[in-house]
Design brief:
A hairpin with a 2-residue loop joins strand 3 and strand 4. This protein has a domain of 75 residues. The chain is mostly helical. Helix content is 45%, strand content 10%. This is Cytochrome P450. GO terms for molecular function: heme binding; iron ion binding; monooxygenase activity; oxidoreductase activity, acting on paired donors, with incorporation or reduction of molecular oxygen. InterPro entries: Cyt_P450, Cyt_P450_sf.
């Protein structure tokens, strides 16, 4: 019996072979963005790498990410162990990096609906449009050159402009 998802057989994620002590360090660094792209091109949309005595599963497939981040009986928004990727950055007082069952999350979300109302958004929309529009030139240029870049730093700076 075989299980198919999207006409494809389920298989364990593939990745580069680890070397003793260094594991996959040299497969990833120093150009981790370019090297991850190369690994995804080689092994597919879900890859498995070993680094610093940990195993990481990475995806560039939005459908896989949607399944992984969906709260269900198999996945939770709350880190359950020190090996969870969000364990080190979780903050019980933060708006987006806390457990959805924490009192801070419930308290903060009392204020979110008014701040996201049509009236409030109408006030913020010109700033959002200006910041977003200013990013198009940079994104178009990187696309034309075929460059990969760390989008986290860029989006953090973009969000800070708004």
């Amino acid at each position: 019996v075989s299980v198919l998802i999207g006409d494809r057989r389920i298989r364990d994620p593939q990745g580069p072979r680890s070397v003793p002590f260094f594991q996959n360090y040299f497969d990833i660094y120093p150009d981790y963005i370019g090297n991850y792209r190369r690994l995804f091109d080689t092994y597919g949309g879900v890859i498995k790498v070993h680094n610093i005595r940990r195993t990481y599963y990475l995806t560039n497939n939005p459908e896989v990410a949607k399944l992984a981040f969906r709260a269900s009986e198999y996945f939770t928004n709350a880190p359950t162990s020190p090996s969870h990727p969000l364990d080190r950055i979780q903050d019980p007082t933060a708006l987006f990096l806390c457990d959805t069952e924490s009192p801070a999350w419930k308290e903060a979300h009392k204020f979110l609906p008014p701040s996201m109302s049509p009236k409030a958004m109408k006030h913020h929309l010109p700033n959002i449009i200006d910041a977003g529009s200013s990013s198009f030139k940079v994104l178009d240029q990187t696309e034309n050159l075929g460059h990969a870049f760390n989008v986290f730093k860029y989006t953090s700076r973009l969000a800070a402009q708004v």
